[in-house]
Amino acid sequence: MLADFIQYDFLRHTFLTGLLIGIIAPLLGTFIVVRRLSLIADALSHVTLAGIAFGLLIEKKVAAGIITPLYSGMGFSVLGSILIEKLRGVYKAYEELAIPIILSGGVGLSVIFISLADGFNTELFNYLFGSVSAVSKTDFYSILGISIVIIIVIRVFYKELVTLSFDEEHAIVSGIHSKRIHLLFIVMTALVIAASIRVVGVLLVSALMTLPVAASMRLARGFKQMLVLSIIFGELAVILGLISGYYFSIPPGGTIVVISIIILLISIGMKRFSLKSKGESELK
């Protein structure tokens, strides 16, 4: 079943990109879920959509080649992440307000740019829901670079990120520069979301950052184990989603999300069966 993905260049680039996204999306998603910031992924995905629509508008109305929708999406996503962090500082007692503010702004700009770019088309549809043929060689190398940077940053700041995720007050007392780490983390999240849109789609990428983590939480016995299981579940969902999306001629984003939900349901069932078996053995 993988023969076509190995034989054809455009499918090979998509498959390799999917493998990278299957690592970095759940990897960052684990920290996002633990910090109870899951909605940030939704907010940044809508800001990314605004950036993509802006890039398509420039291509159509000004000149093609000035800026690609992928890079304009990345720019908007990073800008949105910085604005979220700034707004969290403004509304210190109600930090969660920053997320719906940016999400609303992203949706509003998306509607305006899409309308100015003459509405929906096939290219925009691919950005919304993913495509097995949309990843170019340049896109792959860009996403590879982003993946390497994110893995290195997480490796270097792993202890700081874990401490901030579980006990921010203790982290600050320990001398960790929480604001810098927060900003670095949210910018990385923005880059992952922008990088994932080619395969998963901008409207579904947040699911890949949270569903594998939700499944791993039911089975893991520690944070590191949760990280590993999240990546395994993410890779499984991406691989099966790309293959089924290609052979059934449907957007891979939808199949990746559905498979992620199936994995989540299986993990919930396994946890309940384990608890039931444990209870029965204790009664005996």
Automatic annotation (TrEMBL):
Record has Transport as a keyword: yes
Membrane-crossing segments per the record: 15-34, 64-85, 97-120, 140-158, 179-197, 227-247, 253-270
Gene3D superfamilies on file: ABC transporter involved in vitamin B12 uptake, BtuC (1.10.3470.10)
Keyword Transmembrane: yes
Record keywords, A-Z: Membrane, Transmembrane, Transmembrane helix, Transport
Membrane topology listed for this record: Multi-pass membrane protein
Cellular location(s): Cell membrane; Membrane
InterPro entries documented for this protein: ABC_BtuC-like, ABC_TroCD
Main location: membrane
Origin: domain of life: Bacteria
Family: Belongs to the ABC-3 integral membrane protein family.
PANTHER family per record: ABC-TRANSPORTER METAL-BINDING PROTEIN, METAL ABC TRANSPORTER PERMEASE
The protein, known as: Metal ABC transporter permease
